[in-house]
Amino acid sequence: MPESDNTGPHKAKTEDLLPLELDNLTYGVNNKLLLDGLDLTLGSPGITIVLGPNGAGKSLLLKCLHGLLQPAAGSITWNRQSTTKTILARQAMVFQTPVLLRRSVAANVDFAMNAQGKADSCIRDDLLSRVDLLDRKQQPARLLSGGEQQRLALARALSTGPDVLFLDEPTANLDPGSTQVIETIIDREKSSGTKVIFVTHDIGQAKRLADDVVFLHRGKVVEHAGATEFFEKPGSKEARAYLDGRILL
């Protein structure tokens, strides 16, 4: 089957969701601030990598952006619009640990597409081919290896043709081969116009994929810069320490 130009049904232009703006975004648990007044503007398409030490608030940030958590204060706007069900329907998220249905590989992708009224067996099979799972499409998802399950989770997310894709350490537990497959798919999504916001601890991966980098420390945005600038000349002591393999407490 020839490779398609996109991974899902025809997408609206991602640019009409940008800029993504956070104003004083705050989230806490038991009176402890975990996201502390974040101000951030993401105005360009491409891949934004979110870096920072454990506990910096990276995963919480993605969950707030995707509507899975409600912030205690502040706002999130997409091209000056508050988050709506329509905007959420144009997003997809892949977690570090795959969340799959106890169904076949094909049925997992079909379920996601049917939920949005976008059923298309050709798109499904094209995606499964590109993540090297087409020959396993009738196999129960639970029998896949860990790397295969994560590739299925990515295919399922992409099957809906998202304009914004959130990735929370999707390759953290994968072998190099599966990681390469996923990075190739993500880079192709970027080329198709998808905005990707990607949490990773892998600095090498960040250097390979990032157009810009957001660095979090203690629940704050310490730095936001283009990838070349960030990796060659980080502007904060926290980022410099992190890139050197040190953590400032």
What does this structure look like?
The protein has 249 residues and is an alpha/beta fold. Helices cover 33% and strands 25% of the residues. It has helices at residues 58-65, 85-88, 105-115, 121-130, 146-158, 176-191, 203-209, 227-232, 237-243, and strands at residues 20-29, 32-42, 46-51, 73-78, 81-82, 91-94, 164-168, 195-199, 212-217, 220-226. The strands form 2 sheets. The protein has a 6-stranded mixed beta sheet with strand order 6-7-8-3-9-10, sandwiched between helices. α3 (105-115) packs parallel to α5 (146-158) and α5 runs parallel beside α6 (176-191). The protein starts with 19 loop residues before the first strand and ends in a 6-residue tail after the last helix. Residues 1-10 have low confidence and may be disordered.
> What class do helices, strands and sheet pairing give?
alpha/beta
Order of helices and strands: EEEHEEHEHHHEHEHEEHH
Helical fraction: 25-40%
Q: Going across the major beta sheet, what is the strand order?
A: 6-7-8-3-9-10
Beta-strand proportion: 15-25%
Give me a quick take on this structure:
The chain has helices at 58-65, 85-88, 105-115, 121-130, 146-158, 176-191, 203-209, 227-232, 237-243, and strands spanning 20-29, 32-42, 46-51, 73-78, 81-82, 91-94, 164-168, 195-199, 212-217, 220-226. With 249 residues, it is α/β, with parallel strands linked by helices.
